[in-house]
Structures are given as structure tokens and as C-alpha cells.
Design a protein that fits this description.
The protein contains four helices and four strands; from the N terminus they run αβαβαββα. It is of the alpha+beta class. The strands form two sheets. It has a two-stranded antiparallel sheet with strand order 1-2.
Length: about 100
């Protein structure tokens, strides 16, 4: 009969994740982006959240290809004049409108 191997369990220390200070720094949106998220400086994370709220409220996400976002008149200047953008490229385009 083979001997049983006992596995040692090592206790890992769990540390609470700290938010990145760069994401929490309030940034001023451009006039084009301010039409969607407001004109006061807000953190990058809040900008993304408000843009998604706007997209969902106005049903701008493609029903079949959910990763495609269709631009309306307010989003078109932010998307660089494109009529539709991949959701993964959207954050890079929005970041250009923050300072």
C-alpha cells in the first residue's frame, strides 16, 4: 500500500487592495466629454462609469455584437468622428479628452 502524501498548507497574508492614486485623481473633461459626464473635474474611474451609463441609457451598444458602441451626436467627437467603436478602444479615445 503506497504511503499517503500530506500537503502542507501555507497561510497567505491577505492585504486589502489599495486603489491606484492615478485613477482617483480628478481630471478636467474636455468640452465635448463634459456634455456627457459633466464639467467638474472627476476621477478617471467615474468618467468611465458615466460614459457607460450614457451608452446604456441611450441604447448605443450593438444588440448582436455587444462590444461595438454606436456613436450619437455627442459621442462622435469623442470617438474621433467614427460612427462606431470597439468598447476596448473606447477608453483610449475617452482618455484623450481628459487633462
Amino acid at each position: 500500500m503506497p504511503a499517503k502524501k500530506t500537503a502542507k498548507k501555507t497561510a497567505k497574508k491577505t492585504t486589502k487592495r489599495k486603489p491606484n492614486a492615478a485613477f482617483m485623481k480628478p481630471l478636467q473633461p474636455s468640452p465635448e466629454l463634459a456634455a456627457i459626464v459633466g464639467d467638474k473635474p472627476i476621477p478617471r474611474t467615474e468618467v468611465t462609469s458615466r460614459v457607460w451609463d450614457y451608452i446604456k441609457k441611450n441604447k448605443l451598444q450593438d444588440p448582436q455584437q455587444r462590444k461595438i458602441i454606436h456613436a450619437d451626436d455627442k459621442l462622435r467627437p469623442i470617438f474621433g468622428g467614427k460612427s462606431s467603436v470597439d468598447m476596448f478602444k473606447m477608453t483610449a479615445l475617452v482618455a484623450k479628452h481628459l487633462s
